[in-house]
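User: What would this chain look like folded?
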Amino acid sequence: MDTTLQQTDSLLDAIAPAPGEPRREILDPATGELVGLAPVHGLAELEAAVAAAKAAQPAWAAAGHEARSAALNAAAEAVEADAEELARILSREQGKPLNGPNARFEVGACAAWLRAAAATPLEPETLVDDGQTRAVLHYRPIGLVGAIGPWNWPMMITVWQIAPALRMGNAVVVKPSEYTPLSVLALVRVINGALPEGLVSVVSGDREVGAAITTHPAIGKVMFTGSTATGKAIIRSSADTVKRLTLELGGNDAGIVLPDADPQAIAEGLFWGAFINTGQTCAALKRLYVHADIYESVCEALSEYAAQVPMGVGLEEQNVLGPLQNKAQYEIVAGLVEAAKASGARVLLGGNPDETQPGFFYPTTLVADIDNENPLVAQEQFGPALPIIKYSTVDEAVQMANALEVGLGASVWSADAEKAREVAARIEAGTVWINAHGAVDPRVPFGGAKQSGYGLEFGAEGLKHLGQPQIING
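Assistant: Here's the prediction, encoded as C-alpha cells.
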C-alpha cells in the first residue's frame, strides 16, 4: 500500500461511512486520486445530532468557564498529538501543501485558537452601581449553535466557530463543505476525545442539511463563512426563528501602495497577502492599487518574488502553493484571466495553465495595466491571479478601493506608518492592515463591513457573539 495512505488510514478508517451508508468519493484536487470516502448524511442524522446536543448542553453550560476552558486546552493537546495525520488528510483533500502557510500551519492554528478561546477573559461587567441602581451585564449560553463552514480553510474555520461556542457553554452541530468533509470529520473526531459525548457533532451532508440548520427551531445561533449570496439566503431562511447570526461573507480586498513604499521591501508581504492558500482566502489581497511613481518597480519586484515560489502536489515537501480546490473554482479563475487578457491587460507572470497535467493547477498570475472596471478587479477571483491597478492620487485610490459592495479587509503599504494609518481610516473595511495583509490574531476581533457580513469573531468580542447578553438589574 502507498505509504501516504498508510499514514492517514487510521483517522480515515475511523470516519468512514458504515456499511450500507450513503457515501461520496473525495478526490485529491492535485492528482485526481481517491483520498477517502465521506458519509452523506441527511435530515435524520441532523435530528439525531440536535437531540444529542440538546442532551449534552445543559451540563456543559453548568460546568462553568474554568472547566470548559480546561476541556478546550485538552482538545488542543489532542490536535497536536495527531497533527501530522490531520495535516496530511487536509493536504490531500483540500490540495494545500504541507509546508508554508498551509496544512501544517492550519492544524497548528486549530490548537492555537482552541487555547486562545480558553484563555480569553470574559468577566461580568458592572454597568451602573451608584448606590441606587446596580446593573451587571452577563453573557449566558445561547444553547445550540449551527456551524456551516467552507472548503478553503476547513479545519481552521471550524475551530473558529466551535471553540468560542463551546467556551460560552453551547453545543455545536457542524456542517462542513461537501468538498472537504474528511478534514472536518477527522478534526472533530480528535477534538471529541476531550469533550463530553454529543456536545459537538458533524453532519456531513448536502445543501439540504445546511438549509435545515438555518431553519431548525432548536438552533439559536448560526455561524457561516462563505459567499455573500449564500449568506443572504441564510439571513432570509433564519428570519422565522429569529436566529442570532455571525456571517463572514465574500471579500474582494484592496491594497493601496503609497508612493513612499520600498518595492523590494514589500514584495514578499504583498505576495503572501495575495497568494496565501493559493489565493483561496476570503481576506486575501485581491486587487492592488499602486501609485504611478513606483508602479513599474512594484510590478517588477512582485514578479521576481512570485516567479520563485514553487507550486505543486501538496505532499511534496518543497511546494508552498497548490491547486485550486475544485474544478468550478478553477474555471472561475481561468475565465477572469482570459477576460483580462482579451481586454488588453498586460500579463506579467502566468496566465498560461498547462491543460495536460492532472489536477486543478492554475499558475501564479500577475496582471498589470488593467482597468478598475475589469471583471478580474471587480469580481472576487478567489485564486492565484492578482490584478495591479495604477493610480495617480490617494483620493483616487481610496475611491476605487471603496467602490465595491464588499469590505472584509484591506491594507495600506508605506514607509510612514502614521501616514498609512490616515489612509486606512478612510477605507470601508472591517480590518485594515498596515504593511501586511490578512494577518489574523485570536486576540483581535475580526469581521466584515458592508456586504462582507456582520458579527465579530476572536477575542472577548468574539466570545460575546456566542453568548446571550443578560442584564441583572438590582
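The chain is about 40% helix and 20% strand. If you want, I can go into more detail on any region.
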